[in-house]
Design brief:
Shape: globular
Largest sheet: 5 strands, antiparallel
Number of domains: 3
CATH class of the largest domain: Alpha Beta
Radius of gyration: 23 Å
CATH superfamily of the largest domain: tm_1862 like domain
CATH topology of the largest domain: pyruvate-formate lyase- activating enzyme
CATH architecture of the largest domain: Alpha-Beta Horseshoe
Structural class: alpha/beta
Distance between the termini: 35 Å
Oligomer: single chain
Bound molecules: S-adenosyl-L-homocysteine, iron/sulfur cluster
Mean pLDDT: 94
Low-confidence stretches: none
Length: about 425
């Protein structure tokens, strides 16, 4: 979501005549778009702003931290702009408006389209803003405000623009896309509309809330042409007691039922998740329930975090003293990562010997002689060869290194003799 917002801000600035600088150190104005979902990114955003301010730059601080900490940030920034007013930035800079803070949360997302422009292969489109869920650990409802769904016509217009610009993949964004609703159209209706009217080769969405995802959505993906089968379904925790304390609105069994239903209905679908450890009051037996879900589902990818106490999340006011010691939480996180990785490895092994169409999105991290691309169901595969961004390459997965599948282009494989040293397997 922040990446999307940053792109919109950048384009709004360009439209008003500002020139982007490759290196912030050479810029006159530095815009820091912040995240405050956990303590670390929040401090990082503030420190980044502070260091540029010390270097004499004009600093604009925007995003969730700006929204939430507002006035105290005027010390590290010249202009503080919240999550729903960033369209004011170019004008505030050009016309030297006298206000230094813009924090209205009632705005809608109407200005998104005016900031559209792209030369990218992978893009995003916000379909809603804000969140009404109030999970007890989370600041998002306070930093991004009430949930608002965007007009379907606006979404389609933006998608068509991206289609015409040659974008190959788009992710529809929202904090809880399943609760999308606009005048009688629910999320599945929107997806159907998108699939019928837009011809971008790969369209995904995130984030799905396990409480709200419907069978209608799962089946829409199953039957779709351009919507591809990847579900990001944050688990957060496996224990019913903890889930209740988190105000997540589902039980462990309900989560398992949805995940297993996705596996059954759309066998080629991948499922990724977010999991947190060390939530206040999480006992060893609660953590064991999380591990149990991980074993049963075998996720295809996961983001894992240590709980971070956030003001003004509801739990901050209720339970701030019941914390678990950091060492124990650290051990839990390592145990969780290792269990999740076992599942990922099992899932990756199923890819061995199979053919996939890979969308290349850049050079591999370790060597420019290799490229990084994604399968339709959103798994990154490393491909030998320097391919161009945006190219589609047919590959066969011949090895898994660590957790990364290595896919050899089919035309290369066809020209190889049998004794070419491809080691199958781990
Ligand atoms: N709307 C999405 C995600 C929002 S934040 C959803 O509900 O899934 C992304 C992830 O950050 C969350 O899924 C959660 O795992 C994590 N997160 C949010 N608040 C956190 C906190 N206080 N401490 C640690 N992790 C947190
Ligand atoms: Fe935060 Fe919950 Fe909303 Fe996600 S659904 S943004 S975790 S309050």
């Amino acid at each position: 979501m922040n990446e999307y917002d940053s792109r919109i801000i950048e384009n709004l600035m360009i439209k008003e005549g500002f020139t982007p600088s490759k290196d912030a150190n050479n810029a006159d104005i530095v815009i820091v778009n912040t995240c405050s979902v956990r303590g670390k990114p929040e401090s990082k955003g503030i420190e980044t702003a502070r260091s540029f301010k010390r270097k004499g730059k004009y600093v604009v601080l925007t995003g969730c931290t700006a929204q939430q900490r507002s006035e105290e940030l005027l010390e590290v920034a010249d202009l503080v702009v919240g999550t729903r007013e960033f369209q004011v930035i170019p004008n505030a800079l050009k016309k030297k408006l006298d206000r230094r803070m813009y924090l209205d949360l009632k705005g809608t997302c109407d200005f998104y389209f005016s900031g559209r422009r792209t030369n990218k292969v992978l893009e995003y489109v916000a379909i809603q803003e804000g969140c009404d869920n109030f999970c007890s650990y989370c600041v998002v409802p306070y930093t991004r405000g009430r949930e608002v769904s965007r007009l379907p016509e606006e979404i389609i217009k933006e998608l068509k623009y991206l289609e015409d610009s040659g974008v190959k993949e788009v992710t529809l964004l929202g904090q809880n896309v399943n609760s999308y609703y606009y005048k009688g159209a629910d999320f599945a209706d929107l997806l159907k509309m998108v699939d019928e009217e837009v011809k971008i080769p790969r369209i995904y969405f995130t984030t799905s809330h396990p409480r709200d995802i419907s069978l209608k959505v799962i089946r829409t993906i199953k039957d779709a042409r351009y919507l591809k089968p990847w579900f990001h379904l944050p688990l957060q925790a496996g224990s019913d007691k903890v889930l209740k304390e988190m105000n997540r609105g589902y039980t462990k069994d309900e989560y398992l039922e949805i995940a297993l239903r996705i596996r059954a209905e759309v066998p080629e679908a991948t499922i990724s998740t977010d999991i947190m450890v060390g939530f206040p009051g999480e006992g060893d037996e609660d953590f064991a329930e999380t591990l149990d879900v991980v074993k049963k589902v075998q996720f295809d990818n996961a983001y894992m975090f240590m709980y971070s106490i956030r003001k003004p999340s509801p739990i901050y006011f209720k339970n701030k003293d019941i914390s678990i010691d950091d060492v124990k939480v650290g051990v839990r996180l390592r145990t969780l990562i290792s269990e999740v990785n076992k599942g990922i490895y099992q899932r990756r092994k199923l890819m061995l010997g199979k053919e996939y169409e890979i969308l290349i999105y850049g050079p591999a991290r370790k060597s420019p002689k290799y490229s990084k691309g994604k399968t339709e169901n959103n798994i990154t595969v490393v491909v030998p060869g320097a391919f161009s961004e945006g190219e589609f390459v047919k590959v066969k997965v011949e090895k898994i290194i660590g957790l990364t599948p290595i896919g050899y282009p089919l035309n290369v494989l066809a020209s190889l003799t049998n004794d070419f040293p491809l080691n199958r397997g781990g």
